[in-house]
Amino acid sequence: MNSITVFWFRRDLRLHDNTGLYEALKNEQNVLPIFIFDRHILDDLEDKKDLRVAYIYAALQQIQQSLADDLQSSLKVYYDYPEQVFEQLTQAGITLNGETYQVKSVYTNHDYEPYARQRDEKVQQILSNSGVAWHSFKDQVIFEKQEVLTNADKPYTVFTPYSKKWKHHLTDAHLQERLVASHAQNLLKLSPQLPLMPLEKTGFVDINKSFSSKTIKKQLVIDYQQNRDFPAVQGTSRLSVHLRFGTVSIRKIVKAAQKYSDTWLNELIWREFYMMILYSFPHVVDKSFKPAYDCIQWRNNPDEFKRWCEGTTGYPIVDAGMRELNTTGFMHNRVRMITASFLTKHLLIDWRWGEAYFAKKLLDYDLSANNGGWQWAAGSGCDAAPYFRVFNPYAQTEKFDKQRQYIRQWVPEFELSRYPAPIVEHKFARQRALDTYKAGLSKEATV
After folding, report:
1. Which of 3, 217, 248, 268 is the S-S candidate for 242 at Cβ 3.0 to 4.6 Å?
2. Count of domains observed in the chain
3. pLDDT tens-digit profile of 124-141?
4. Does residue 375 share a domain with residue 306?
5. 267 in active site
6. Which domain holds residue 399?
7. What pLDDT was estimated at residue 193?
8. Where is the Photolyase/cryptochrome alpha/beta domain (predicted)?
9. Rounded to whole angstroms, how far apart are CA atoms 326 and 187?
10. Residue 3, beta-bridge partner list
């Protein structure tokens, strides 16, 4: 039986500058790229037409087209539980074009979320039991896990010193492109196969038209610092969805940030900071980083939460953000902070409720960033806004949407009588939040 090497795509849906794919092709022959639509994840989706699945499918179509047209190879797509896929591959091999191959090794790129780590441990055990080698590489970040540590060799829990150490460690070697094409001859020659679509079709999705561009716009990056906080302005890169699924290389983006905008580079470092926090402190998935904040007595009013979700709170900037999210799957980062602060401070609703709602709606949903952002807003995170910092939605509007352009786009009725009155008065809500937080933190201190 001929042997084959499998490259497993996950959060790296591109052929160019892909570390694991490059290493597989450099070291092995008969490399077969695969992707697994993971039923552990997809079967739990409420929306069976989830646009994120359509995005993945569109990215796989692009990969398949490039493999077929340029490299005379193909992608093999599964809809199954990953451990069952690899049980099958190791026990029975894989039959392609009438020929059966024995899997000798599996290459992939690291994934850092708790579920992904558990999944990979199971797959590695299955492979080990059959004598199949496992090779995994760093690809979706510049620095991972515990590569950036304090002088005491402990994980950083404050961003500023982490970012300084991150920049100090950075060298040109970290940004070197992985030249996949130079070893493409080692791909398995295979007749094209149409990628499997596991769920209901959302209609034809053109990844170049239905989602933000993958192009790094030089002038936008240069102007990023002065424009990034204004939601009515196209002042952010909108590359977050591409970073989430790996349809662009982090190395390429960091190179551009180095060249044109230190502020944008800092935002990319925040992304890795939160990934490091999630890896080093996995309890943050469902608990506050600071245990004291789990003593806050949340009101958790379901009717008020529903109004926040729907964008009918009577605060135009909050409602605009929620409607943008519900309609497009995206929300401007400044508005993410405003809406999160409003839910946790004005309405005193547990940050985990808001985090879960964003997880359902955001196209660029990333557990570490979403969790980090929500705990920052709630004051419970490692490097968070203090609990007594309560965003004033009116002041935020005056500062960042003074002409109400963003609000008019998403809440056109905000000046009409049918627009609801504020769900709660700001001054009252602020004081209530301060009192509640203070009481909760005092309670923890006496336990």
Report:
1. 248
2. 3
3. 999 999 999 999 999 999
4. yes
5. yes
6. 283-446
7. 77
8. 3-142
9. 41
10. 102
